[in-house]
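Exercise 7. Given the encoded structure of a 81-residue chain, write a plausible sequence.
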């Protein structure tokens, strides 16, 4: 009797484990928290406002007064409250 119960318990655990593995492999994209983007192009800015027509024709954003590069070292000030 003990062997039969042990065998039944083992079989139940095996079936449950295999079902969980099957569900993990067939998870839809919208349910997967690891999926951050699907069929999306890399983000970029498509438009830029120049202050004059001559600067706009040269297409050099860095020469514009409206350009601000975010590359470099940043300083952060942490405040408790």
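Solution.
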């Amino acid at each position: 009797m003990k062997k039969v119960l042990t065998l039944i318990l083992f079989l139940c655990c095996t079936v449950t484990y295999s079902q969980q593995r099957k569900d993990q492999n067939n998870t839809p994209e919208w349910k997967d928290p690891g999926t951050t983007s699907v069929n999306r192009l890399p983000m970029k800015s498509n438009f830029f406002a120049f202050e004059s027509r001559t600067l706009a024709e040269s297409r050099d954003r860095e020469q514009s007064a409206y350009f601000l590069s975010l590359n470099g070292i940043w300083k952060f000030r942490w405040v408790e409250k």
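Remark. The chain has a mean pLDDT of 81. Students should compare their own answers with the one above.
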